[in-house]
Specification:
Mean pLDDT: 93
Largest sheet: 7 strands, mixed
CATH architecture of the largest domain: 3-Layer(bba) Sandwich
Strand content: 15-25%
Low-confidence stretches: 1-11
Number of helices: 12
Length: 478
Amino acid sequence: MATKNKVKTTTKVIDNYDYDAIIIGTGPGGEGTAMELSKKEKSVAIVERYKDVGGGCTHWGTIPSKALRQSVSRLIEYNASPLFRGHEKAKHLTFPDILKHASSVIRKQVQLRSGFYNRNRVQLVAGEASFIDANTLKIVKDDGSVEQITAKQIVIATGSHPYRPDDIDFNHPRVYDSDTILSLKHDPRSIIIYGAGVIGSEYASIFRGLGVKVDLINTRDRLLSFLDAEMSDSLSYHLWNNGVVIRHGEAIERVEASDDAVVVHLESGKKMRADCLLFANGRTGNTADLKVENAGLTSDGRGQLKVNDQYQTAVDNIYAVGDVIGYPSLASAAYDQGRLAASAMIDHHSTAKLIADIPTGIYTIPEISSVGKTEQELTAAKIPYEVGRAQFKHLARAQISNSLVGSLKILFHRDTKEILGIHCFGENAAEIIHIGQAIMQQTNGGNTIEYFVNTTFNYPTMAEAFRVAALNGLNRLF
């Protein structure tokens, strides 16, 4: 083994290693692992190649896109409010304008998360990591210098990046992916978004809210097909009603980018022209530069690593969490995966697992959030269920806040009244869903739709939708 150049602040050697554990990546998965191991008094280092901690979640994904969405949502609310109608001219903001808010949120998140590592005595190592062997990492610094660090156990939490096909020129100033779109400097009048998954749908809402003409190209036959069909249809209708053109079942043949426009040619023979293109069709795990083969690992065609129930890879001392292992590819789940992996690293007999029903939050305008089974899944499984619905337009709080678009749907077993799934479309859906999620986690008969009927809610609130939906559903029984 090559001579090790130890990090200067390291004061002890653990079983001939520099650290008990090294984590590669400071996103939610890496942070969750580091915090849990540190609290169990393990010597921990975490490697970050970017200039600040937080990973893709903080700098290019979850945080900036949700901050952008918040600004646009408030803009739409302002322009739609009867309080200002006729008194002031409708406000217009550009994409660069709303990026300023996102930048301030990112700065606050970086400061907060940097403090976590400092307080918990986690050694932050800046540089690009790659494997020399299963216990040794090579770290290339920004200044070109190189060091090696070792650990008994290593966790890969490197996240993912947007998929970029070779035949599209992403260096062209009018062609973007979901990372580089945050560097958009001009104010486009039109945009083509290729890929109508979560990212594509969210950005379609954001740009349309800014008054930009949006063409959303969907490679499948419906939007977000993993959702309950009613929620997917609600989003499709809302986007259509707001002027987004959705083209289903299409695929790109080629892209022509010039100084003043982008022309997208589809395999169906159609072609479209816009000021810019956002390619948001798929993501790839960040393993290409890790040289995982030196540690005895192999990534799949999407750059992802296979793990067992304890997030352990094919190499016993190496674990992986977050987007780099694929589904569910959620920041919230990645953090919990990190904590669970840390527990398994300490106790190999640990049986702790993620909760079965992980909530999904999709930050379109309005939001969509779901937990549990869809109607389609229950029908396929031949489970006798009933539906309770509440329309937001009938709630006093929604009328007060002028948030009339949306609904809450509760799916429950006809016989036992057990809640099987909850689906929400509307403003603050991702917050509202947690009330139902908490009840679904109850045991010993506590998870029934009758809870919402027998509980007194604050009035007026959006949470009252649970009581309205529960009454609606129970009235369907006979």
